[in-house]
């Protein structure tokens, strides 16, 4: 199966054929650096980080560009509120963004340009648009004339007449048409500005991405990504000004990730359900957040809630537990170079086939528009197979099972690397989770062992009600007891 991705422009999945064989140019809109990043930023950046990693896994040479918007109305307003220079504020939150993305395990893009470092490129594009009759200067501002560009709204598929009916010209704007958008804004007192043919000023929001993407990827490139909220007006306007300036198709494939809701409501500061990445990482391991986001298809909406994060932690723990058990088993029973089995059960054969073919099933899922949820499902099947091998303990009768167990662990780590998962030592990761669970439960390991001993004594005395009460009380506090022939162990749920 060849890679197919959903193109927002056409509204359908298309086979991926890059403009240059073996090479991919990808631009993803970064953040406006005036505040700390929230869970929506985490989703967008994790999604495109995995797309970046998977394209590299397929063997493509990927030129990945993610920008910083470091001049904007919001930055200026926040800097004025704090009484500092806007550049100082922008650098503060660029550093915060970089720290958040590093914590979430993102690979560094090829380029991370800043808008303020590309004024010459921005001005050059605006000049081209004016020369082509697609833009006009007005009192120090420059606006793009949407009526002059054939195909405006082709990405968002909106109706122009309806858009015109709802458009208004704000006070201070010198537009000819309410739908026109700013390419360059005349300087106002106390704002940062740069010299231009139209007087001192600064760029509009949309033009900077056209300038930076074309600077590093050329006038036409393969993939442009971002959240669904950017389809209109940002990406729509990027297309108009870029294609208007060059006369060439701007982007071949447009990709947009779905929204994040919080407890089934739209995230909003006014609703009190606004969570920054830093807030979330105080409570959850970064890899849990990543696992949660990848457990849904990138185009689907996801619901951020404590329950869903706890489910993600439990799912990720299953992977780490399987990797830990595999490592312990292989340390005790080294796989032989040749490992025949006199008799292989049907269940064992099914497990061996799962491990042998997981790479193909993983690739099929990812090739179908980067379906990470399905890819993780195939990897979970391998975990179940690994757990069966360890539980059955047929290592002397069937040494082949050790070879399969070793291969399964290796494949999980390899495929997990494509998703940015399983980067920790399994024992240490599980111990951190256990310590956090004990803290939340208000218990110590010693206290749990004392309760287990009390439960065992109660059962010996045939006081099963007391034994069940201890088990149920621990379960209510997030501690699960595991009874076996060897005795009773416990784990944090």
UniProtKB/TrEMBL annotation:
Keyword entries, A-Z: Aminoacyl-tRNA synthetase, ATP-binding, Cytoplasm, Ligase, Metal-binding, Nucleotide-binding, Protein biosynthesis, Zinc
Domain Cysteinyl-tRNA synthetase class Ia DALR: 361-430
A GO CC annotation given for this chain: cytosol
Binding site for ATP: 269
Compartments reported by the entry: Cytoplasm
Positions bound to Zn(2+): 29, 209, 234, 238
Superkingdom field: Bacteria
Broad class of the protein's primary localization: cytoplasm
Cofactor(s) demanded: Zn(2+)
Signal peptide segment: none
Residue interval(s) of motif 'KMSKS' region: 266-270
SMART domains xref list: DALR_2
Enzyme class: ligase
NCBIfam families for the chain: cysS
Quaternary structure (record): Monomer.
This protein's name: Cysteine--tRNA ligase
Gene: cysS
């Amino acid at each position: 199966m060849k890679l197919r991705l959903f193109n927002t422009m056409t509204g359908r999945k298309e086979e991926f054929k890059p403009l240059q064989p073996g090479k991919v140019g990808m631009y993803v809109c970064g953040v406006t650096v005036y505040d700390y990043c929230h869970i929506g930023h985490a989703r967008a950046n994790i999604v495109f980080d995995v797309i970046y990693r998977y394209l590299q896994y397929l063997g493509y040479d990927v030129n990945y560009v993610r920008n910083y918007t470091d001049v904007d109305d919001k930055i200026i307003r926040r800097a004025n509120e704090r009484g500092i220079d806007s550049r100082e504020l922008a650098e503060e939150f660029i550093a915060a963004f970089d720290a958040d993305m590093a914590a979430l395990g993102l690979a560094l893009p090829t380029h991370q340009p800043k808008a303020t470092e590309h004024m010459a490129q921005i001005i050059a594009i605006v000049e081209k648009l004016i020369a082509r009759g697609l833009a006009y200067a007005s009192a120090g501002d420059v606006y793009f004339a949407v009526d002059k560009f054939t195909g405006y709204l082709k990405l968002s598929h909106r109706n122009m007449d309806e858009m015109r009916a709802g458009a208004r010209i704000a006070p201070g704007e010198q537009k000819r048409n309410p739908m026109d958008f700013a390419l360059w804004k005349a300087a106002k007192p106390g704002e940062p500005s740069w010299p231009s043919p139209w007087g001192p000023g600064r760029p509009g929001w949309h033009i900077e991405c056209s300038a930076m993407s074309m600077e590093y990827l050329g006038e036409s490139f393969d993939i442009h990504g971002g959240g669904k909220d950017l389809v209109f007006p940002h990406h729509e306007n990027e297309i108009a000004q870029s294609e208007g300036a060059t006369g060439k198709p701007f982007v071949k494939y447009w990709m947009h990730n779905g929204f994040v809701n919080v407890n089934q409501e739209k995230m909003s500061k006014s609703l009190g359900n606004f969570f920054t990445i830093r807030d979330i990482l105080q409570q959850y391991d970064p890899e849990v957040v990543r696992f949660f986001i990848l457990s849904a298809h990138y185009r689907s909406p996801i619901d951020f809630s404590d329950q869903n994060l706890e489910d993600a932690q439990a799912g990720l723990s299953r992977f780490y537990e399987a990797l830990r058990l595999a490592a312990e088993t292989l340390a005790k029973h080294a796989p032989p170079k040749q490992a025949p089995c006199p008799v292989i059960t049907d269940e064992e054969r099914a497990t061996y086939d799962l491990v042998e073919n997981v790479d193909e099933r993983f690739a099929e899922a990812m090739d179908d528009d980067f379906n990470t949820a399905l890819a993780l499902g195939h990897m979970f099947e391998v975990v179940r197979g690994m757990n069966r091998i360890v539980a059955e303990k047929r290592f002397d009768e069937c040494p082949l099972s050790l070879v399969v167990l070793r291969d399964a662990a290796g494949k999980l780590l390899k495929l997990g690397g494509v998703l940015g998962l399983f980067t920790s030592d399994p024992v240490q990761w599980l111990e951190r989770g256990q310590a956090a669970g004990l803290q939340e439960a208000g218990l110590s390991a010693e206290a749990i062992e004392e309760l287990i001993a009390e439960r065992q004594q109660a059962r010996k005395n045939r006081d099963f009600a007391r034994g069940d009460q201890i088990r149920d009380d621990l379960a209510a506090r997030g501690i699960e007891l595991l009874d076996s022939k060897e005795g009773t162990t416990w784990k944090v749920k």
